[in-house]
Design brief:
- There is one protein chain.
- The chain is an alpha+beta fold and 325 residues long.
- The chain contains twelve helices and 15 strands.
- Among the domains are: 84-125 and 199-263, no CATH class; 136-194, no CATH class; 266-321, no CATH class.
Length: 325
């Protein structure tokens, strides 16, 4: 992708004005809040008291409501103002064009993808994580301009330091961050941004990265496009399916698959989402043992994949009772 495709976007202010660090602690420069945790009830009480003292608080009410938590460790989440990187999606028409080259199952999948492409905004491609696809964006420490490096070979040619330590490693952190390049505008030193890529960038480039597109084009041509791709479609029209199409529209102007089957999701027998933490998840080995694999196969084979399936021992008993032995 060319440099003009990328641009940083700020949430109204620069990151330096964000009051919280990555652990939710107020930073230096925010008065009596400095060093306090935004999750500490005492901090909230102080803020409310300060607003009341200034005559800016109209009223305080307590009411129950849902609050976001980490689905893994259950820690409360905080909203932080940060800068992110986007790709200008002014070329969406090219993506929409190749959508017609594939067969979509169910048929409404095509229209759902086109609707997403018509209404989507620019593509936010950065993540505040350590491990992941290292975005090939270097920012000059002197003038602040940024540059996009297009390949490992280009990086080697332009490296102004750190190549020896990086060479031999995969292009991930911490090794890729050791490489510095010269700014083409002012000649200063440019360092890679700390952000990694949205996981869907990795997923979308799979038809090229795993088949040797840049190493053996003849081999790649034997396997591209894929004959069949399938994935649960809730969310994938704006994630994996979209990423696959976006990458291929840019790289080859043709669809990365011939047939795409989007299927709905498996829920418990009451129609609720299954989660281990909720206690309603059914392990495969347990269900295969208790309900039998033939019953399980028949439950899925007779079901329309475009609709959610309610899976459990009750529905399995109903299916088993219809068998004639």
């Amino acid at each position: 992708m060319r440099q003009r495709r990328f641009r940083p976007r700020q949430g109204g202010r620069s990151r330096s004005n964000c009051p919280l660090d990555e652990t939710g602690i107020f930073l230096h420069g925010f008065g009596e809040l400095e060093g306090r945790s935004a999750l500490d009830p005492a901090t909230i009480d102080w803020i409310l008291g300060n607003l009341q003292h200034k005559g800016l608080l109209v009223a305080v009410e307590h009411y129950p409501h849902n609050y976001p938590h980490c689905w893994r460790c259950k820690t409360e989440l905080l909203f932080r103002l940060v800068d992110e990187w986007f790709i200008d999606m002014g070329w969406r028409d090219a993506i929409m064009e190749i959508c017609y080259d594939a067969r979509w199952i169910p048929d409404f999948g095509l229209q759902r993808e086109l609707d997403w492409l018509k209404n989507m905004g620019d593509w936010m491609i950065s993540k505040k994580r350590y491990w992941g696809l290292a975005l090939p964006i270097w920012i000059c420490e002197s003038c602040g301009s940024f540059d996009v490096v297009g390949s490992r070979e280009e990086l080697k040619t332009r490296a102004a330091g750190g190549w020896e330590q990086f060479n031999g490693h995969s292009p991930h952190r911490p090794w890729i961050d050791l490489v510095k390049i010269r700014c083409p505008k002012c000649g200063g030193t440019a360092s890679r941004i700390s952000d990694v890529g949205n996981p869907w960038l990795d997923a979308g480039i799979v038809p090229y990265s795993t088949l040797g597109y840049n190493r053996d084009r003849n081999y790649w041509e034997k396997w591209f496009p894929a004959d069949f791709v399938t994935e649960s479609f809730p969310g994938q029209f704006r994630n994996w399916f979209y990423a696959l199409l976006a990458m291929s529209a840019l790289m080859e102007r043709r669809a990365p698959f011939r047939v795409l089957l989007g299927h709905a999701v498996v829920r418990d027998e009451k129609g609720e989402e299954m989660h281990k933490s909720k206690g309603n998840a059914i392990p495969f080995e347990e269900s295969a043992e208790k309900m039998g694999v033939d019953v399980m196969r028949w439950m899925f084979c007779r079901h329309n994949p475009a609709n959610n399936i309610n899976f459990g021992y009750g529905p399995a008993d109903e299916i088993r009772n219809r068998f004639i032995f």
